[in-house]
Write a structure and sequence with these properties.
This protein has about 220 residues and is mainly alpha-helical. About 40% of the residues lie in helices and about 0% in strands. The protein is extended, with a radius of gyration of 25 Å.
C-alpha cells in the first residue's frame, strides 16, 4: 500500500510552520531596518532644483559665507532661501549671459521668488529653530555636512528624533566658536577655547522634553 505522504513531508510542514511563525518577526525587523536606512531618511538623495546651483563653486571655490544666501539663520527659526535679487546682486555683473542663469533672470524680471525645493524637510509636527542653535555654537556643517563639496546639496544626516536627542543629551562635541559657525573646514586650534568652555560661555542647556520640538 502506497503512503499518501512521504516521511519528507514532516520536514516540509515543520519548515513551513517555522516560516509562518518567523514571518511577523522578520517583517518587523525589515521595517525597522528600512526606517533607519538612508533611503527612508532621504539621505544622499538628489533633489531637483529650479536653478542649477553648485555649492562647490560658491561655498567652496569662492568661499561665500552661508549667511550671504541664508540671511536669516541667526535671527529666525528658518535659515531662509536666496532671493532672485540676491543671485542677481552678483550675476548682473558676473556670467550675466550664461544660459544656466536664464531661470534666475526670468524670475528676477517677473518679480517672482525662485521656487527652491526643500532638501532638509522635517515633519510638520517638528519645531526647529536655526537661530538658537547658531547662537549656542552649533556649526552649519554639524547638520548639513560639507556642502562646499556638494555639487547639489543633499541631506547628510538622518535628522531623526534619535539623532537629535543624541546631540541634545551631549552637545559639547558639536560646539565651536560663533565666529566659525559657517566655516566648512574649521578645526579647533591650540589657542581656541575647549568645547566645555564654549558650553559655559554660551550657556548651553539643551532640553530633552517632548515640548522642545513637539509644540
Amino acid at each position: 500500500m502506497a503512503w499518501i505522504f512521504t516521511p519528507r513531508a514532516n520536514t516540509v510542514v515543520r519548515a513551513v510552520a517555522a516560516g509562518l511563525l518567523a514571518a511577523p518577526a522578520l517583517g518587523a525587523v525589515g521595517l525597522w531596518a528600512y526606517a533607519r536606512s538612508p533611503l527612508a531618511q532621504n539621505m544622499r538623495q538628489p533633489i531637483p532644483q529650479p536653478v542649477q546651483f553648485d555649492h562647490r563653486h560658491h561655498a567652496g571655490d569662492e568661499a561665500i559665507d552661508c549667511r550671504y544666501c541664508h540671511s536669516t539663520v541667526e535671527d529666525s527659526p528658518s535659515a531662509g532661501y536666496p532671493s532672485q535679487a540676491t543671485c542677481m546682486g552678483c550675476h548682473a555683473q558676473i556670467w550675466n549671459q550664461s544660459p544656466l542663469l536664464e531661470p534666475v533672470r526670468q524670475f528676477y524680471f517677473a518679480d517672482r521668488p525662485i521656487p527652491w525645493s526643500r532638501v532638509h524637510d522635517l515633519p510638520d509636527f517638528v519645531y526647529f529653530n536655526h537661530a538658537i542653535h547658531v547662537s549656542k555654537g552649533v556649526g552649519c556643517v554639524t547638520c548639513h555636512g560639507r556642502v562646499d563639496l556638494m555639487p547639489s546639496v543633499q541631506q547628510a544626516q538622518p535628522l531623526s528624533m534619535g539623532w537629535c536627542l543624541d546631540c541634545h543629551r551631549d552637545p559639547v562635541p558639536n560646539l565651536r566658536p560663533r565666529e566659525a559657525i559657517t566655516a566648512m573646514r574649521w578645526q579647533p586650534g591650540p589657542g581656541d577655547p575647549t568645547p566645555e568652555e564654549l558650553a559655559r560661555r554660551y550657556d548651553v542647556q539643551p532640553r530633552t522634553n517632548c515640548t522642545t520640538c513637539h509644540r
